[in-house]
Structure formats: structure tokens, C-alpha cells
Model the fold of this input.
Amino acid sequence: MLFWKKKKEPQIALKNEVVVPQEFNTFGLQDLLHYIKREIGVDLLSKNSVIETKLRLFCERKEIYSFRKLFEALQHDKMLRQDLIDLVTVNETYFYREESQLDMAVNFALTIPNVRILCAPCASGEEVYSLSMMLQERRREPREFSITGIDINSEAIEKAQKGLFSERSLHKLDQRLKEKFFTHEERFYRVKREYFSSTSFTKVNIFEHEFLSLGKFDIIFSRNMLIYFDDEFRLKTIERFATLLKPDGKLFLGHADIIPDNPYFIKHTDHRLSYYVKKS
Ligand SMILES: C[S@@+](CC[C@H](N)C(=O)[O-])C[C@H]1O[C@@H](n2cnc3c(N)ncnc32)[C@H](O)[C@@H]1O
Done:
């Protein structure tokens, strides 16, 4: 092994060299956006200019200098594909979001023995943990229910599995709930594992076959994902929900998730809160 310092090379030879930044070629953006929509449903075609900058920075970080090259690389590079999905999906969520709707679902869940609930998508898991907390607050033991959370964003799923959340994410919870279900660690709150043995999180794309092998559910939550899809993909999504929902089950969507007329579900509204049941 050599221990002396390597002598610095003289700089003179580089004096007249100019580092030419790689010119970025934006050709191929439309193909890329169509690819994203086809693969995960997220429709970015109308947000062209904002997304162009975001995707360009993504490419440059990866030392890819055209959208066409990125598109080609995506065909065989699974990690790159996942990084791109993590970049273009919006994972905003928090505990007890739209509490009155969660309450309505919990009231229904309490009528079903061994109730099975699916949150698709769950982002970083707050919705899944919230439902579990609410059921336990109503004296249901974790062994009496199961809640599955799925999302396509790998970072979000990792965060859900870790169960480590910021103060901001818990802003709707009172002190009693925080103390009961979390341990406070400096700037973070960690879920107490003993309360959450019946929750699970998996990275799944709702358009892939794996989604249909998750089993049958009494309740499906799908809040704030359909807003990123167009009508064609909204229809495809709810058709898949109809396959996974048991005959007497209920589907809960977010307030902004408007679905087109369809042969699968009828909407019911109760005290300004809505849910969907399957058409028979
Ligand atoms: C705004 S979050 C909604 C989280 C939670 N349901 C809520 O309302 O608080 C939307 C999530 O949809 C996920 N998503 C988008 N397309 C998806 C797909 N094809 N399969 C699974 N998850 C998807 C994103 O990764 C993102 O985490």
C-alpha cells in the first residue's frame, strides 16, 4: 500500500480546455408522458410545462441527456422506472384526513366480523393507521380485523412500514391519541407496534396482475388517486375495485374523485357523505 500523498498533476495542460455542458434534447417528451399514463394511470399530458422541468432535472441527475434516451432506458432498467414513478406521484396524506368519512366506514366495519379493509392507495400509511386506531378506539381488537395498504411509490411504502411520522402528519390528533398510539422521538412520532399487528403495506401497482391477487375485501378506500387519472383509467380502476370488493361491501372515494357513469357501482349519499355499492 502507498502512504505518501500523490503529487498534484500540473494544471497547465488543461488551461485551454473548455468543459462543454451536454446539450439537453427535449424530443420524446410526449412518448414519455404517454408511457407514464399507460403504466400507472397518472395523466401528466395537460401539465406539460411543469413536468418538463421536473423530468429534465431528473434526467440530468441521472446523466441522461434526452427524453428519448430516458424513454429507451425505462424499457429495461427497473430501478430507473421506480425512481421515475417515485418522482411523478404525489403522496400527500395525514392522520384522520376527512375524519367524518373514516367514521362512516368504521361504523360499517363494526357490523362485519373479521372485516377486511383495503386502502389503495395508502401513500405513507396514515389512512391505514388511522382506520386501525379508530377501530381500536371502538373496542375492536387488532386480531378482529385486517387492513392492507398498497401504493406504487416505493419511498411512501417504506415510510409506512417504518411507521415514523412528523408532527405535521399528526396535526389532527389530540394529545391522548398521540400518547396512546405513538412514542415521541425528538421531532418524530413512532407508531407503537403492539397496536398495529393487523396492518400491512405492500408496493403494488393497481394496474398490475398482483393487485387482483390481494383477495376479497369488505371495504375499499381509494381517496385522492383517481384525480390524477383521466376517465379511461378511472373506469379501469373501478372495474378492478369491483373485482376485489365483496358483494355487500362498500367503496369510499375522496371528495374530488369523480367517476364517470359505469356498470359497476351506484353512489349513495348519507348526511353529505358518500360511498359506493356494487350494482347487482
Ligand atoms: C395523494 S396520495 C393519497 C393517499 C391517501 N389515500 C389519502 O387520501 O390521504 C395518492 C397516491 O396514489 C398513488 N398512486 C398513483 N398511481 C398509482 C397506481 N397506479 N397504483 C398504486 N398507487 C398509485 C401515489 O403513489 C400516491 O401515493
